[in-house]
């Protein structure tokens, strides 16, 4: 990896080679984030492209304070969330399903990563985004509600519904495996 400060400064000057190098160095990490929040690989690739365009356009705002990688990850998540906010109303579910203190084991750990990622990608947008932000990225319901423009109660409800759907998919997968034996 090159000198990050020099690379960032060259990107701020609009240096295309520096931008290409930035893409090469961080695209795998950011693609993983995009894939996690997207419905499929094509959408993840589009989100990655949009994220890099935002990074290039806003790189002047990075003041070399804190982690650059953390900064571009945050931009990537925000870029994807902003796209979904424009596409649809993420707050359709407004009833309060209280989150369990200790969520029951839904069998996430018994699945291979590709299968679990596939199940997560199949979730409706509002559930997938909430699940990823809360479970995989560790945001609080307050933070999620701020990011998605919903209430904390909606965030809790969407998380509970996402877990319920995932549990049903995992149970169906277990039943299918047992039937195949």
From TrEMBL:
This is Sigma-70 family RNA polymerase sigma factor. Residues 22-87 form the RNA polymerase sigma-70 region domain. GO terms for biological process: DNA-templated transcription initiation. Keywords: Sigma factor, Transcription, Transcription regulation. Belongs to the sigma-70 factor family. ECF subfamily. One of its GO terms (molecular function) is sigma factor activity. NCBIfam families: sigma70-ECF. Residues 116-164 form the RNA polymerase sigma factor 70 region 4 type domain. Signal peptide: none annotated. PANTHER family: RNA POLYMERASE ECF-TYPE SIGMA FACTO, RNA POLYMERASE SIGMA-70 FACTOR ECF SUBFAMILY. The keyword Ribonucleoprotein does not apply. InterPro entries: RNA_pol_sigma-70-like, RNA_pol_sigma-70_dom, RNA_pol_sigma70_r2, RNA_pol_sigma70_r4_t2, RNA_pol_sigma_r2, RNA_pol_sigma_r3/r4-like, WH-like_DNA-bd_sf.
